[in-house]
Design a protein that fits this description.
Blueprint lengths: L1 H37 L8 H23 L6 H6 L2 H36 L2 E3 L3 E3 H5 L1 H22 L13
Antiparallel strand pairs: 1-2
């Protein structure tokens, strides 16, 4: 399981690198759009739409790695104030609920993306593209987050019966 977890961690690092690359591209595109508009050259018409799509993809690409690093939203100050065993049980509850929610979004996202594909739906804004292109990353990303919840639960089971030590924001 440790080797699989390390391999998976490298996949998540690559995804985070792609998210950073998309963020850089989006930043350069927005800067170029503003510059071109200020020079009276009209700008880059699809820049707003592409920025929205980039933000969506950046979020989906970064989420599994942020969860692995413990940089997601947590209420660790509460876990630190509780007895160790109760904090540990709440960690389990949080991971189980997170896994259940992710599996729901995998199911729902796949269903919506497949329906969009089957219907041939188009996203028509500045750019025209198949709608499923925008929907397909969601179930994939949530499946990866679900896998990370399984790894978190494994680490929780193998560790001490106390709240996690990773990503604690309270001293």
């Amino acid at each position: 399981m440790l080797m699989l977890s390390r391999w998976y961690g490298r996949v998540l690092e690559a995804m985070l690198g792609m998210a950073c690359g998309l963020l850089l591209i989006m930043t350069l595109m927005i800067g170029a759009d503003v510059l071109l508009r200020n020079l009276g050259l009209g700008g880059i018409p699809p820049s707003n739409e592409l920025s929205e799509d980039c933000l969506y993809l950046v979020t989906l690409l970064a989420a599994p790695r942020l969860l692995r690093q413990g940089q997601h939203i947590r209420i660790d100050i509460v876990l630190r104030a509780l007895p160790f065993r109760l904090g540990w049980l709440l960690e389990w509850l949080g991971d189980a609920l997170g896994l259940a929610c992710c599996l729901f979004f995998v199911w729902y996202g796949a269903r919506v993306a497949l329906a969009s594909f089957a219907n041939g739906a188009l996203s028509i804004k500045t750019l025209v593209m198949p709608e499923w292109w925008l929907m397909a990353p969601m179930p994939i990303a949530f499946a990866l987050v679900a896998v990370e919840f399984v790894f978190r639960m494994h680490r929780l089971a193998m560790g001490a019966q106390r709240p996690r030590e990773d990503a604690v924001s309270a001293s």
